[in-house]
Structure formats: C-alpha cells, structure tokens
Amino acid sequence: MANKILGHFLRSRPSMMMFKRWESSEPEKRVTIHDPFYSQPQKNKETYLEVVKMFEGRDNRRRGHVEFIYAALARMKEFGVQKDLEVYKALVEVLPKGKFIPKNIFQAEFMHYPKQQQCAVDLLEQMEDNKVMPDTEMEQMLLNIFGARGIPLRKFWRMMYWMPKFRNLSPWYLPEQLPNDTTELAKLAIQRITSVDPDTKIEIWQTEEIEASLDKTWVVSAQSEAQKILLAEQPTDDPLVVKGPFNIYLREQVVNYFLLIGKIRPEIKDNTDPDDVSNIEKPRGIPGLIGTTTLPAVRQTVHEQDDGTIVSVCATGTSSRDSLLSWIRLLEKYGNPQLSSIPVIFTLTAPPSEMAIQETQPAIKDSQEKEESRI
Amino acid sequence: MALCKLNTFINVIRHNTPNPILCKSLTKTNSVGYCKPLLVGSQRWLFHESSRKGGYETEHKISNFQHLKNGFKELKDELKLFKEEVKELIITDPLLVARPGETDMIWCFNEPSKLESFTTTCDSDHNEGFSKCSFDMSSAGRGLFHGYLDTRVPKDGRIKKAGYCAMRSKRVRKSFKRAGTYDWHLYNTLVLKIRGDGRSYLLNISCEGFYDITWNDIYHYVLYTRGGPYWQIAKIPFSKFVLGSKGRLQDKQTRFRFDRVTHFGISCGDKIVGNFDLEIEYIGLEFDPTHNEEFAYEMYKTDKYIVGV
C-alpha cells in the first residue's frame, strides 16, 4: 500500500508541484541575475567600493551578505584590488556587528553561525594568498563581529604570527612594487644574477650607437674587471658562445637573459711534494715586503663555472639575434677590444616572441575517454 | 520509468532546496550514475586516516599468487641486503661526531642512476590541475627539476586551487621491505648546491611515524634561489623548519626528530604561472658548531582551547 502511494506520488508530474510558481507565460519576465559588479563601466577600486556601499545601503538587514562577500571576493582580480587591504576591510565591514558573538560556552564550542565564520576565514585566506598582511584595525573589526572565540580570529592571529616572519626572508631584496619600465626591471634582474661578484658594473647601452644595427633598443650588460681579464685571456682560435634565452623570475615578472661563455682555463697540476726539502725555491714574494706583488697567474674566480667561463651577462629590449649582435659590438667598443679577433657563435633557441602559450584549458576526462574508445 | 521520475525529482530538490540530509538519503536509495553532483563540497573523515596515501593510491592490484611469485624473485636480493646489514652491524663502529664544517652528501646527482632515488608528482597526475614536471639530467650533467607550473583550476566543481610540482625521495628501507628512517642526528644544517631561476621553492622533510596522526607531518622551509648561471650553496639549519600537516602550518610547533626522517623533497608551488628550472648538484648535511639555536620559533601562552583546535 505504502509503495503504491509513494509510486503515485513520484509519478505525478513534478512541474505541477514545484515549477508552477516560477513559470511564466512570457520568457522575458523570468528571473534574471542582477550583478552589480558586471554593470560597472569602469573596473577600479572606486567602483568596487561603490558596489559594496550600494549593498550596505540597500537593505537594513543586509540579507545575503555571505553570498555577496563570496561574489565580491571572486571579482577582486577583475577590478585589480586583490592586493588592497582597504578593500578587504570594506568587505569585513559588511558583516553585522554583535550578532555572531557567542553568548554561552555551547555556542562558542559548536561554531556559532558557521556559514558566516567560514566566509570570514575564506576572506582571510584570500588575503594570505595575495600576500596582504592584516593590521590591528582588522583585528578590532573581527573582534566586534565574531568575538574572541571566533574561528576567524584564530586565523587572523595565525596570520599575524607567521606572515611577518616570512615577509622579508628572501636574501635578494626586491622593492614592494616592481618597476613598470622594462629597462629598470632588466637592470634589477641582472643585478640579482651578478650579485655573486660585487665588483660587477652594470651598464645600459643603446644599440643605436652601432651603425649596422637593425633593432633600435636597449641593452643591459654586466661585466666585472675579473671578467674583462678572463675575456682578454681567451684563446683567439676558440669561439665564444652566446647562450640563451634563460629565464629569471622577479616575483611574477620574467626577464630573459643571455650569457657570453668562453672556455675554461686548463687546470694547473701541482705535482711537487711539499715535504720535499731537497730543492727549496725562493718564495715568489710576500706583497709589500719582498719579491713581486703580482698575484699568481691562475686564480679560481666565481665566473669560472664547470660548464664554461661566464664572460658577460646581458638582457636586451627585444631579445632578438640582431640586438645580441649589437651587444657583442658594444662590449667590444667599451673595454673588450679582443672581441674583434675572437669568433662568436650564437646558439640561441627560438626567440621568445615566437613562443605561444596554450590559452584554452585542455579537456581532461572527455578526451581521454575518447582516446580509449578509439583504441 | 519510476527511476527517471525520481531523478527529475532529485534535480528539482538540487536546484531549489539545498537540503543536505535529504540529498544524502536520496543518493543512497537510487543507484543512477549521476548521484555524484549532489555531494557538492569535500567530505572529510576526521576520525582516522585509512591509508598513508590519503586516497591517492596508484598501485596495481595483483593476485595473491602473483604476489607470491614476485616475492620469491626478490628473496635473493633481500637476503643479500640482509647479509650486508649484519656485516655492517658487526664490523662498523657507529659514527659519534660529525666533522665540523665538512659536508656529507646524501644525494649527489652526477649520473643518471642517482636520479632514480627521487619521484616526481604534480597535480595533473590525479587530474587535479595542469602542471607538469620531471627530474632529469641537465646539459651540465646535474639533476634538473623542471616543468611548467599552471594555476588553472579544472572545472570539475570540486577543486578550489591548483598548481604544484614536487619531487620526493623514495622511502628508505631495510632488508625484507622493512621501512627505515634516515638518521641525521649528528648534523644540524642542510646544505644544497643549486642553480635556480629566481623562484622560491619549498623544502620538505617528512617524519612519518607509526600512528596515522603523524602520517602527514612535513617540516617545511623556503629555498630562495638567486637565478642566473652561478651556482649557489644554501645552508639551512634544521631549527628553522616549521611543522605543517597536509600543508597547513600547525599552532604547536616543534623541531623535527633528526633520527626519524623518512622523506626529503623539494616542491614548487609559488602561484607563478610559467616554466621553472632548478638544477641541483648535491644535497648534503653539515654539522655547524657555531649554530646553537634549538628551535627558531617562539611559542606563546594563550587562553585555553584557542591553540591547536
């Protein structure tokens, strides 16, 4: 009997029970989505805050504030405000004060208003992902909303414990705001690469100085005195090699750089026995006292890596072959006359401008299934 | 026919009244393929962990007979290993002091066979993202951990974030497939000779224990790379490593047990989309007598039931 009733219940048309209220004869009158973020003509911080203000002013009871905050968090990148603490504060301000504070131990223990607490935690997490550090004002706001026993407060305190510890940990300092100018960015990158040798001089040249150049662009080139000497000592019959482009990341910015690499000097093998006293040589000299003060001829420098001697590092505006040719000519002009007699080989992979990054998401499951079915 | 109706009914419920209890009971009663989207949101079982892999099992199931056959094949090598172990126990005296300032290499990637002690994983392995990575020999003859990090999230409605690549050493073991641990108690500094691309990487030291509560304990620290063609030597004291479980930093921090290390790994997940290259010459250990810090992170006394909950 019960089965019969249930079967009848299930067999009756669901549209009769559920859809009737929403159905309309005219399709234009059906429910549409209102998205205040979408309708903004300009996407910037002012308009973003305007939408938040609009939501606050629309309804005293602020119905749907959790949904609004989630929608607003998802739109942050679009408006370019994902790194702005003020905007996050404005979103926290949307939550009502006092209502979510637990009043007894049971409420405190069993997560009072879980949706709202989770929403605030997700907001804090997005701040963390975007490397935005909260401040004490934010703490006060969260205390007023959730009370000292709230989960968002715990998240906040954890953030305030860890984030300052890791904020300035990197041994290679980068300014808060990376420069927009590509030349300045390339200079920062080359500075970072050549920080191994404090003697390195970084120079910015224009390729227009070379008459034969086709690309009119800039070259950021770095060379130290030691590298100049190493280049001068290169054998003239063995070619130097220009290698690249290699990537260096400055936060999310990528800079392409190129290397001029020479041969490694032959290792000098010292087979003399230091304990053999039968034939003691006169010491070569103690600087300032006796003998000559020149340093020994072979000296292991940092530039002599095991895959070649790095003679110079550069980044150019276009990363093209022609601009690299101009770089070699400019190196020759400024202090490396030997380059006119040493051949240089360019072993470059395809210029980076010809690379394409796949934009669309490859379908994961469907394509695999299709392939399997074909097999 | 009735099933069909039931499904439309479920759809109605899904769209109009998101009642989780009802949805769950309904999914139990019908066995149609698309009960899956009803269970939106990740479900966590917080009482215990059922497997060390945490649901990412990739092992092939083989029959008991096949298992037995494989076991017999490996018996000879295992016995050899056991013989070596006994020999070592009798002959060698344990090392009591590490030479200060000298680096003892654990892994030196100078030939292709040395790379086999590491495995790589990335999110595309389990259809959870689009990153790719591998650990090969570089043109300079060193280990090269490289790939493409992609933070795009697959549109399956389940995954919120994506983008990681990782390499991890294989579990150290004794004869007869007994799990062993690295004993690093003589040392206090991790030394890496690397050549990176300016990105920051994460060093992971796993200390899995017997109980499931420790299976996901990994001690982390950041490895900053300079970038460029010059090699750099990074020395990181053990005291700096912070405890995380499943990637979340824990409130109650301790330094790791130096004699209970099970895995060492490096991962790349800095949310920057693009290619990454990390060339590694060696990973070693050093005893630095001037470093007498026990643990780098101070702990505070808080109200009851705030920390560790």
Automatic annotation (TrEMBL), chain A:
Record-level GO BP terms: cell surface receptor protein serine/threonine kinase signaling pathway; innate immune response
The keyword Secreted appears for this protein: no
Compartments in which it is found: Cytoplasm; Mitochondrion; Nucleus
The protein, known as: Evolutionarily conserved signaling intermediate in Toll pathway, mitochondrial
InterPro entries: ECIST_C, ECSIT, ECSIT_N
Occurrences of domain ECSIT C-terminal (ranges): 224-349
Top-rank lineage group of the source organism: Eukaryota
UniProt record similarity statement: Belongs to the ECSIT family.
Record-level GO cellular component terms: mitochondrion; nucleus
Keyword Nucleus: yes
TrEMBL record, chain B:
Compartments (UniProt record): Mitochondrion
Residue intervals of the NADH:ubiquinone oxidoreductase intermediate-associated protein domain: 108-280
GO biological process: mitochondrial electron transport, NADH to ubiquinone; mitochondrial respiratory chain complex I assembly
Keyword Coiled coil recorded: yes
Gene Ontology cellular component list: mitochondrion
Keywords: Chaperone, Coiled coil, Mitochondrion
Pfam families (UniProt xref): CIA30
Coiled coil: 65-92
InterPro entries: Galactose-bd-like_sf, NADH-UbQ_OxRdtase-assoc_prot30, NDUFAF1
Domain of life of the source: Eukaryota
GO molecular function: unfolded protein binding
Family named by the database record: Belongs to the CIA30 family.
Protein name: Complex I intermediate-associated protein 30, mitochondrial
Origin species: Spodoptera frugiperda
Gene this chain is encoded by: LOC118275609
